[in-house]
Amino acid sequence: MPAVDALPPSVSVTATNADGKTTLQVTNNQSGASDISSLTLQIKNGNFNSFTLENGWTGKKTSPTSIAFFPSSPVRAGDSTSFSISTDQSNPDLIWTAFDSNNNEIGTGEIGAVIQKVTSPGQNNSGQSTGQNKNNEPPTPKGILDVSTFRIIPSTPSPGFDVRVVGQSFTSSTPLDLYLGGQKIGSFSSDGNGNFVVTATIPQSIQPGNVDFILRDQANDQKTFTTTLEPAPPSRQGTVKNIPLTVNIDPVLHPGDVTLISGTSDPGSTVTISILNSNGTSITTFTATADNNGNYATSQTIPNDMPFGKYNLSVSDGKDQVSKEYSIVTSHNLTIKTSEKEYQPGGTVVINGTSISNLPVSIVVTDPTSNQVYAKDVNVTADGKISASFQVDTTAVIGTYVITASQGSDQIVTYIGVGQKPVQGISAHLDKLNYQVTDKPVLSISGVPSSTLSLVVIDPSDQEKFSDSILLGQDGFATYSFNLTSFTPGVYSLALTRGSDKTVLQFAVGLDTGCGQISLQATKDSYLPGDTILLFGKANPDCLLQVSLSDPNNVQIKSEQTFVDKSGIFHSFDLRIPDDGMAGTWRIDATSGIDHRSLPIIVKSESTMTIQLDKSPPNYNTGDIVTISGSGAGTSVGVIINIMGANNASYQTLQIQSTNRGDYSTEWLIPKSFGTGTFTVQATSIAGKVTTPITIH
User: Can you point out the beta strands (E) in 472-542?
Assistant: First the structure.
């Protein structure tokens, strides 16, 4: 029978590495009989950080070590596409698999540490058709794949010694036999992920020299590892004292940390280190070698998307095994949670949390229209506990409310729903407002767990500076940094989007003080304790300002940095009169170098109760609608409106609720049958009683 020519691969993938990113070129070759409808990537001995897609592709990170990609339209024969990924490896070892619209595999291969091999469907390693055998019996399932690899640790063992056999990318749960030359020295199976780590003993009868370790599956396919057997070292004959196997790791770690794993073992020995999750499943395995004194050490970076929880570090030297538990926790020192996730208008929201003691925590609540409905600086107890509560207004806007807690540079958010379940959005903040080109901004993000966000930075000329994709961890948090070496001085915008959800931040690069003449104004002249100050002004474009608030005793209450944009406008929305602020004349200062401007404002004590009608003089006809309003009734309390005649006889009573600012308002339709003459409108609340006359014709 004539030989069968090997068919060319249906799909090919190439990779280039530059500037910490890997760019993949996916090609559906002319010989391809099927369109590419999806592609999966798996990284070996590493983790994915982020990816950037083009041509309508979408991606989903299914685990720290795997991503699935889907094109908006299938990649047809002769076409190609590309995308880039970021990993924690400079030259990642990647396994890719392409599928058609029926989820049938149409190509697979490996890129990176192992030379890529591609297998077309229906072919074996030699390019021959795999079909059924001549007796029409199904072929024995393959346990060893083209991408399968294994190695021996240590790589140059000695007769009579134990070795670890480490394998990856085999068929899951497949039986395997290990031979040394023609002698079988072990049998085992791969795990559910197609990997294994087992121990085998080199027979004393094997002579030192070149040998082949051979791994065979049930289909008689095999992989070979060639090495040299060394004579047994004298130290193993008792001249050197054995050193016990130990391991050390910090008990508490955070995403992004670089942790040191160290311990002791026999001098010159190689230890196998495995990281297991709380279910005992191995996440990754690597090795380290002990020095002449029996000490070993290696470092590992905790991925930013590593789930919080407890992990186990297991270390084996082939004879003994030791383990140590550690935990991965949030990098935030601040935590908050609410008593419920959904509230009805009029309900009370209770906020509890933990933080660094002896440093106040600022809590701000905004409604779906971005209006601030609650703000307070909360004291922290000596044991780091915080607590606050506020009442939702009875006329509150229905939707998702954002609760932001800040302590120093640490900031976190949580969401509640009023009248409906909350919808988690995107929240982000930068560690500074103004940077130098040598800085690396740190962007802290929260959003829907395990979601992918698109990031775009816009330069001062309103042109896109760069873009990227960010993967949030299973806790909904991520930290992202970028370089500023190519940035020119000015004000930049940073946008994060996911579908229709979007948040925009502004930051400055290379701005200096010295804004020239400064104009400064607030939206009103007088305030009450707890009020937020909305501040606006003008100055020379692209410069830095320091804005501060001081009380009547000249004590500075708060100071923050802001900048003047390219149109010469600046603003500040973060100044607030404390809840216990004293009455008197306060001062707002805007300073930039030697340039300075002050603005006095009046802070009043809690106002007395007022009432007013919508007409002056208050003359109405029967059938008219009267608007009755006032202030100072008390925060979110009941207000009773009485329409009274002679001798204070009550003709009609209305019951309403004040807002969280103490204001109240309602409408009264004067019945056609109502009498004429002069009457009194009275409002009563816990703050007291107030009246105003009304004349009805």
Answer: 477-481, 490-498, 501-509, 519-522, 526-527, 532-538
